[in-house]
Amino acid sequence: MSMSRTTSASVSKRGLSRREVLRFGLGGIGSLSLAELLRRRASAADTPSADHEPTAVILVWLHGGASHIETYDPKPLAASDYRGPFAPIATNVPGIDVCELLPHHARVADRFVLLRSLVHTGFCHQQGTQQLLTGHPERVLRNKPLHPDVFSIAHAMRQGTSPAAAGGELPSYVGVPPVSYGGAAYLGSSHNPFSVTGDPNDANFSVPNVGVAEHDKAVRMIERVGLRKQLDALQRRFDHETEMNALDVHEQRAIGILTGTTATQAFNIAAEDERTRDRYGRNRWGQQLLLARRLVESGVDLVTTQLSGDLCGGVGNWDDHAVNSNVFEAMQYRTQFFDQGVAALIEDIYDRGLDRRVMVVVTGEFGRTPKISYQKSTGKRIASAAEGTMQPGRDHWPRACSMLFAGGGMTTGTVIGSTDSRGEDAQDRIVGRGDFIATIYRHLGIRWQNQAFPDFAGRPQPILLSDGAPIPELTARG
After folding, report:
1. Where are the domains of the chain?
2. 226: DSSP letter
3. pTM to 2 decimal places
4. Gyration radius of the chain over CA positions
5. Over 70: is that where the pLDDT of 144 sits?
6. What is the C-alpha separation between 219 and 39, in angstroms, rounded?
7. If you ran DSSP here, which 8-state letter would residue 49 be given?
8. What is the pLDDT of residues 378-410, one digit of tens each?
């Protein structure tokens, strides 16, 4: 928001109000307006929620859409132009098989649930992401959603109730990094995630603007986003010792996130045991997943971590059209990192006693076409042949999407739903996007019935359309 749009009511006779200084000054840091966020949390302390301990969600997002056949729903009896080259392997739960590319998953299958029958109608990445995460039947290609996603809404609904909010030194919603094509829409930027875009496997990894040792340095960061004159005016009116006392409690807490030690410790992945870091995998994805665990353990209650980039091979995501990559080479390359990291995260959620509080969800925006297609490669890269080479691929497929769930107090070692013999269509226990979102809300203790936020035009928009209900198998045991 520009200074020119500030209303006269927000400016006192002495200049920009203290609240406005912090609201605008912190707005550019990590895509999070911390002071505004903290004020809204306090004003919403009576937000409806279930009567249980504070809960959390980690979303592991496979940007581009992972093949369900090469992960959680193999089809060994299908014809060769469907099943691909990889065989299923048995897991530690009799009757549950996964693709042979996931041996680490196979040994922890007693600690997760597979959903094989989610369906929606979003055939492109933007539509698929936004349908799945907003619940609305989006059919237009939008890089930002028209409606807020489930995590932005949860962020707004749980203000003042999360461990992070209560402590005051951690943002309660963090993207490591955030999900592409998601966002807070008309809820405003203060409900977008605190964004972590660096590589946690880098020896010099740090999170910008977290762990500022001194108040003066935090003020200088605020000055750099365009409020130098207003802050100079404040500093003339308040001496160094009394300036913080002049700020209200929410502004102090916003500065506290920048200057306190809690966030510094939570993001300090170098403090983790070396054997644990090795178990997750010494690569970007493994360390992202480990950082996600550190954050929820510290009190953050909403974490998304997108697995994309170089470790995907191909064009840097899971979008395995034949023009982008050889789907089978790409899956074989990336699953070595994915399999190890996700299995380690699941193990830690249970071994560290987080399995009732934290729900882990692993999914992309859709599955892939069961029938293999062939096209000419657009260029030589990891998992893609030289330009012009014919190679196999799989395209977008929202008619059958597989997901993994762990933690959340649920009964694990089970499978929900099924697809037909070729993996083309869900045929048993079909689940929709609204059911998925209702399940997330249920775990987070959010009563979604009759809850709405005004959109940009001031019209009330329900946080869940009427066709959604929690998936019973994914709710906590009594």
Report:
1. 56-203+275-474
2. I
3. 0.85
4. 23
5. yes
6. 19
7. B
8. 999 999 999 999 999 999 999 999 999 999 999
Buried b (16+ CB within 10 A) or exposed e, 122-141: bbbbbbbbbbbbbbbebeee
In DSSP notation, 141-163 reads --SS-SS--HHHHHHHHTTTTSH
- Report the distance separating Cα 365 and Cα 62, nearest Å: 8
Integer Cα distance of 298 and 429 in angstroms: 36
Whole-number pLDDT of residue 32:
38
Assign 45 a pLDDT band (cuts: 50, 70, 90).
Answer: very low
Structure token pair of residue 349: 């959620």
DSSP 107: H
- 56-203+275-474 CATH: 3.40.720.10
pLDDT band with cut points at 50, 70 and 90 for residue 257: low
Residue 215: Cβ within 10 Å count: 16
| Both structure tokens of 128 | 């698929």
- The dihedrals phi and psi of 397, each to the nearest 5 degrees, come to -155, 85
Q: Give the whole-angstrom CA distance, residue 105 versus residue 92.
A: 9
* Other Cβ atoms within 10 Å of 67 Cβ, number: 30
How confident is the model at residue 301, as a pLDDT?
95
Under DSSP, the state recorded for 109 is G
pLDDT tens across 291-341, in order?
999 999 999 999 999 999 999 999 999 999 999 999 999 999 999 999 999
Alpha-carbon torsion (177, 279, 309, 439), positive or negative: negative
